[in-house]
Design a protein that fits this description.
Blueprint lengths: L1 H5 L4 E5 L3 H10 L6 E5 L2 H10 L4 E5 L7 H10 L8 E5 L5 H9 L4 E4 L4 H86 L3 H15 L2 E9 L6 E8 L4 H12 L1 E2 L4 H9 L3 E4 L10 H7 L3 E9 L2 E10 L7 H75 L4 H33 L7 E4 H18 L3 E6 L5 E4 L1 H18 L5 E9 L2 E8 L33 H11 L3 E5 L7 E8 L32 E5 L3 H13 L3 E5 L2 H10 L4 E4 L8 H9 L11 E5 L4 H10 L3 E4 L4 H14 L1
Parallel strand pairs: 1-2, 1-3, 3-4, 4-5, 13-15, 19-20, 19-21, 21-22, 22-23
Antiparallel strand pairs: 6-7, 6-11, 7-8, 9-10, 10-11, 12-14, 15-16, 16-18, 17-18
Helix pairs in contact: 6-7, 6-11, 8-10, 11-12, 12-15, 13-14, 14-15
């Protein structure tokens, strides 16, 4: 075969733009008996190489258009010709740089003209022989491939005959083993049913019975893994409650761990599919079906078949039992019937235990509810007694001194003492009511913050100034320690002052005479801390977790030393949490003082405008009004309470205002028709028609009749929604009772001046 290939001529490509050079080389190579192909340009040569293979290319360097080097680059870029030998032949480009470039392009030689014909013939002869050898090798490889294909075909035929014979033998063995397998399956099913019946008869609950039930499938039916899935409390998913494995191999352990971490919804995985159908499901050779994420683990453990069946009573679904095997499971009706019977038996057990548990829980719950009701009733009685005591105590002083002022002839000094006592106790009673209202707003979520940049230290100093008289009365020293560069944070200024004031009031109350209180302000991380520490009575460890609870007092007995409703610290906690902060307390025990700490973020929120006006200020500061600041202001007061009318009329006339009063809406409308005021001040709750009816009638009138008169709602309705309703109805301002006279006068000045 090799000799035949040697007698076959091969292509030798000559590329030169000068025909005389091509003729010379063609003549030299004529004796070799090869096919000499001549091309006068690189493009002509490339066209030939597109369809033919060549053993060698003799290439001139200097050619018009594409030169030899550029042609060589194109040849090397094509997969078919990239290994074709190239010999550069040149008479002009003989410099070393041209020679090196030729070799860099993969040339096998570089000849310069003139050259010896014999040298050229020998080089061509060598490369043509090499080409024939490579072609012969390719041909031999093709023949060898055909031979191997024939051999493979023969082997496949032999294997097919072997498999056919083996299949016949296996079929014979299966027929012989059928009766034995059927008997084993029957015995295994009877063993499972007996084991499960015995287990549920003596178990206290499904958790206790689960392990034995699942173990029965591993021991009697050859399951590699068995698992129990139960519905979650919300009934939206299945969770794995128990898994048993046939052995402790790593692959089965991994499968078990993965199952315990999984949750399935309806129609997801084998358990979800059983849930959806509420009937047994058999997976043969497709454990990965139904989007089960345990596919890879099942394959690694060799688990190829699986069965799941529901735990149920009628259509009431409780959960799923699934088991996986390495061997096929019979897809017959008898197996499905057995599994349905087992599921129903376990379902009856679950229902029975659930009913028993619910009955027991009802008894326990009834006892707990009775105890809670008794405790709530006791706390309610204690709270009502405390509220009654705290409200009656200042009321006693008010009524007593009021009666003395009315019936006795007092000296000027005693009269001033009586008035000061009445005013002080009225303010105390007002504060108690404010605390109750604040607590109600906090509980219902109706307390809104009026956030703005707040200078912290001046706010703390203001709170200190408020409690300083009470502290000085007990010779208590109040020290401050401010150690941070943070001057301003975003918060509700009034509520921040209220929080600090409550802590200081608490500290003064529980610090004995000649004690010490220290107020600190510092930066901690991304927030600031305000601390109030005292050398007072301290807090017992038992009461420490209850300090910030509403209506909680360490001593609520009738012999307690300190008064109050137990709301101040609860209000501090709620206000701090509304600001995004937290409050804490520390005490080393009775007699060792206490430290309260408020932590607030440095920046809490953007400044919000137009928030609901606060009940104390309605957007105005408590600035003293000069005695005659209301000179010439005409004010109409509407209130069915004569005492309230007389108080307001007297106080406003003292400030220079001209006042008329009415006790009903009809009387007020008649007064307005005769006398137009600069401002209307009216109560809301009145018999017949209320203040809302009055403001609606006023706003419906013509401007010359008074429709644009500013109006203030002055009422005992102090909730946030009451303020919002008043402003929506047409009032310019809502001020809750009891009213501060200076604050009211300032509000009137603001509205009358705006008009």
């Amino acid at each position: 075969m090799f000799e035949e290939s040697e007698n076959t001529s091969v292509n030798v490509l000559l590329v030169d733009d000068r025909p005389e050079n091509l003729l010379v080389m063609e003549t030299i190579l004529e004796d070799l008996g090869e096919k000499v192909i001549c091309a006068t340009s690189a493009r002509e040569a490339l066209k030939f190489l597109l369809v033919e293979d060549v053993a060698l290319i003799l290439l001139d360097v200097q050619m018009p258009g594409l030169n030899g080097f550029e042609f060589a680059e194109l040849v090397r870029e094509r997969e078919r010709t990239q290994n074709t030998p190239i010999i550069f032949v040149s008479a002009n480009s003989v410099d070393e740089q041209y020679v090196f470039k030729g070799y860099s392009l993969g040339a096998v030689d570089y000849l310069t003209k003139p050259f010896q014909p014999e040298i050229l013939k020998s080089k061509v002869k060598f490369f043509t022989k090499l080409f024939r050898q490579n072609q012969e090798i390719k041909r031999q490889a093709t023949l060898l491939e055909h031979a191997n294909t024939s051999l493979d075909s023969a082997n496949l035929d032999l294997e097919a005959r072997v498999r056919s014979r083996t299949t016949e033998l296996e079929a014979a063995n299966k027929r012989l083993a059928t009766e034995l397998d059927a008997r084993k399956e029957s015995e295994a099913r009877l063993a499972i049913e007996h084991s499960i019946t015995r287990t549920v008869a003596y178990a206290e609950n499904l958790d206790d019975a689960a392990r034995e039930i699942l173990r029965s499938f591993c021991d009697n039916i050859g399951a590699g893994v068995s698992a129990l899935w139960l519905r979650s409390n919300n009934g939206t998913e299945l969770r794995c409650a128990q898994v048993e494995t046939a052995d402790d191999s790593q692959t089965l352990s991994q499968f078990k761990e993965e199952s315990l971490d999984l949750k399935f919804v309806r129609d997801q995985g084998l358990p979800g599919r059983v849930w959806e159908l509420n009937a047994p499901v058999l997976l043969a050779d497709q454990v990965h079906g139904d989007h089960d994420p345990r596919e890879n683990l099942a394959q690694a453990a060799g688990l190829t078949h699986a069965v799941g069946f529901p735990i149920k009573i009628a259509d009431e679904f409780y959960g799923v039992i699934e088991f996986f095997t390495r061997s096929p499971l019979p897809d017959d009706r008898s197996l499905m019937n057995m599994l349905e019977a087992i599921g129903s038996e376990i379902g009856q057990f679950v229902q029975r235990k659930r009913i028993e548990g619910e009955r027991e829980n009802l008894l326990v719950r009834e006892q707990a509810l009775r105890q809670q009701a008794e405790r709530a009733s006791r706390l309610k009685d204690e709270f009502l007694a405390t509220v009654s005591h705290e409200l009656r105590t200042p009321l006693n002083s008010i009524l007593g001194w009021g009666q003395i002022l009315k019936t006795s002839d007092l000296t000027e000094e005693d009269r001033l003492t009586a008035l000061e006592t009445i005013y002080r106790n009225a303010r105390s009673q007002s504060q108690l009511i404010d605390d109750l209202l604040d607590t109600s707003r906090l509980i219902t979520g109706n307390l809104h913050l009026n956030l703005s940049p707040t200078a912290v230290i001046p706010t703390i100093q203001t709170a200190i100034d408020v409690v300083r008289p009470a502290a000085e009365a007990k010779s208590i020293v109040i020290d401050t320690k401010f150690s941070t560069e943070i001057e301003t944070i975003t918060c509700d200024t009034h509520r921040l002052q209220q929080m600090v004031w409550n802590l200081l009031t608490n500290a003064v109350k529980f610090t004995p005479d000649s004690g010490r209180i220290e107020v600190g302000y510092e930066r901690v991380g991304n927030g600031v801390q305000i601390t109030v520490s005292d050398s007072g009575h301290g807090i017992s460890p038992d009461f420490l977790p209850l300090v910030f609870d509403r209506f909680r007092q360490a001593d609520s007995s009738s012999t307690r030393k300190h008064h109050g409703l137990g709301l101040g610290l609860a209000i501090v906690r709620h206000l701090t949490e509304l600001h995004g902060g937290q409050v804490s307390v520390h005490s080393d025990g009775p007699g060792k003082g206490a430290v309260f700490t408020i932590t607030l973020p440095i920046t809490l929120a953007v400044i919000s405008e137009g928030n609901v006006p606060q009940k104390h200020t309605n957007g105005h500061t408590n600035r003293k009004v000069s005695p005659h600041q209301l000179n010439g202001v005409r004010i109409s007061i509407v209130d069915d309470d004569d005492d309230a009318c007389n108080l307001l009329r007297f106080s406003l006339e003292m400030s220079g205002a001209e006042v008329r009063t009415s006790s009903s809406v009809d009387e007020a409308m008649r007064s307005l028709s005769e006398w137009l005021p600069d401002l209307l001040l009216t109560d809301i709750n009145m018999p017949g028609e209320d203040g809302y009816s009055l403001i609606r009638k006023l706003r419906a009138m013509k401007p010359e009749q008074g429709s644009e008169i500013p109006a203030i709602a002055l009422t005992a309705l102090a909730r946030t929604e009451d303020s919002e309703q008043a402003l929506s109805a047409g009032f310019q301002m809502h001020i809750p009772k009891p009213v501060d006279i200076d604050e009211l006068a300032e509000a009137i000045v603001g509205l009358a001046g705006r008009k």
